Amino acid sequence: MEVNRDEAERCIDIAEKYIRAGDREKAVKFLYKAEKLYPSQKAQALLEALLRNGTAAGSSKPSMSSNGGETRRRKTTSNTEEKENTEANGEIQHEYTSEQLEAVKRVKKCKDYYEILGVTKDAQEDDLKKAYRKLALKMHPDKNHAPGAAEAFKSIGNAYAILSDTKKRKEYDLYGEEKPQHTTNHRHRHYYYDDYTRGFEAEISPEDLFNMFFGGGFPTGEVHVHRRRTPRRHNRREEDGERRTATVTHAMWLQMVPLLLLVFMSLLSSLWVSDPIFSLNRRGDYKDERTTSNLKVMYYVKKDFLKEHHNSLLRIERQVEETHLDNLRTSCWREQQYKENMMMRARYYGDRDLYRKAQQMTTPNCDRINKLYGG
């Protein structure tokens, strides 16, 4: 591959620098690396010369006039070694703040999933969601480049995935302080895990969970990340784009599975279940309009409704009002969640216009509930 060829030539250039500096060991290391990436006659010739004579043809060790010169040479070599290794591997060095590093260290020091999210053991679903949103935005590897941020982000995802699942949360809590120790034998060695996971790992990946909360991928608009550019930046961006697209597609399918199951179950149940007594919308045979006596909720029935159900009108009207209120509560919850997410994004990006728009957003279904109860 051409990419490997460029990297191999870069390794050869670095090796020649070490040959001129008299550092045979590092020169051999980079020449071996060049051979692995893209074999060439130049690298082979330099290797043979180094292994046979201790120096390459056309190059010789510079003689140092004093111990001071030797010290200066070693210092220069050690200062540039890390930089050249980074250039040879094609890595991108990212900047991060001390606050980001401290946040990563805090997560790594945690003893259980509750401590990772910063919630109590009696935390409800809303508390878990708020804690996850806050930490996930702060710890996502696209935002936080501190060492260990990826592992911390995974720990946060695992914590929410386990604690938001009622069954897994109960099993997780059952262990208490008695953490399980599992051993596996691999090449005559025993490995133990004895940590906050207690053997519980999420079935969904941290990226998929993040996409389900924030609609796919880390929001990159208006976010400026300072980084050093390398020749491989374009290729990495394409790979990240393809990987993110695949992740979003997978997350969309996961979200559609419950809907497809619901449709299938509805079709299956319609084969055995009789027609409902009432409908909140005018449709088909439900044409006769009626209103409940308590909350004045409008509903529709069939022509022979009174003849069949005249002895159970109060019970049916209570069912109508409960169904109507359930629909309003569900719609109200969705409106509040959408408004809350928009305000959170506006605060995160410092977008005043978006924040003002979120504040002015109405919640008509919530208003209807208040009107029914409060008048």
Describe the protein in words.
The protein has 375 residues and is mainly α. It has 15 helices and 4 strands. The chain has helices at residues 2-21, 24-37, 41-53, 67-89, 98-109, 113-117, 125-139, 149-163, 166-174, 206-214, 233-269, 305-309, 313-349, 352-360, 364-374; strands spanning 182-186, 189-193, 288-291, 298-301. A two-stranded antiparallel ribbon has the order 1-2. It has a two-stranded antiparallel sheet with strand order 3-4. Strand 1 and strand 2 (189-193) form a beta hairpin. Helix 2 packs antiparallel against helix 3, helix 5 crosses helix 8 (149-163) and helix 13 (313-349) packs antiparallel against helix 14. The longest helix is centred in the last third of the chain and has 37 residues, at 233-269. The radius of gyration is 33 Å and the shape is elongated. 15% of the residues are buried. The model is unreliable at 55-88, 177-194 and 217-233 (pLDDT under 50).
What are the SSEs and their pairings?
Blueprint: H1 2-21, H2 24-37, H3 41-53, H4 67-89, H5 98-109, H6 113-117, H7 125-139, H8 149-163, H9 166-174, E1 182-186, E2 189-193, H10 206-214, H11 233-269, E3 288-291, E4 298-301, H12 305-309, H13 313-349, H14 352-360, H15 364-374
Antiparallel strand pairs: 1-2, 3-4
